[in-house]
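[job 4471] stage=fold_predict status=RUNNING
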Amino acid sequence: MTIIFRYLIRQVMISMVAVSGILLLVFMSGRFLKYLGSAAEGEIAADVLFSIMAFRFPGFLELILPLGLFIGILLAYGRMYLESEMTVLFACGVSDRQLLTKTLLGSLPVMVVVGAMSLYVSPWGMKQVEQIFNEQRQATEFEMLAPGRFQDFSAGNRVTYTEGLSDDKRELRGVFIAEYGKDGEGITIFTANSGSQLIDRETGSRFLILEEGGRFNGEAGRLDYNVTGFEATV
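[job 4471] inference complete, writing structure tokens
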């Protein structure tokens, strides 16, 4: 009898793992695409995406495992009914109560894992994710920049591009900045061969110093742009 119930639990667990894996892939793919879109818009840095997904993993597993177990039981026992294995078991003296009891015992490890995730692991993971998002909100545009990409900042009012960026994100090369005026009227464009970040030690304020470039100010579609060249500007 023990061999039979081991067989039953093994069939349920195999189905549960397969279903949970597919659901986990779907859920995490959708969430990852959302975070990827935020990274593309410059709201979060690209290098924290996998950290966020890792901390969110327990929360996804907490939601998916019970559903995977339920579907796994339906699939495993449904197949056994379809192939008349259940009919043979009932003919050998296995009752519905015994089947239910052994199924609950086999589900106990899943219940313990889900309970532990709900009470401890998932809240800790969500706290880490919230901390990452708070750090990203406080990050400067320099820390969000990625070389070779046009990125929106200031709710889409400013677009920044740089060809190259130093490892400490203090030095820029090939800089392009386009900033819209108030109410979207007029546009100011800065181009520079290089740029560097200056931090005021007293106030902590950050400034961008552009070198060997130009400033173009006007309205799109008109030819009366104000053009100013500079060796260095803040």
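[job 4471] summary: The chain has a mean pLDDT of 80.
[job 4471] exit 0
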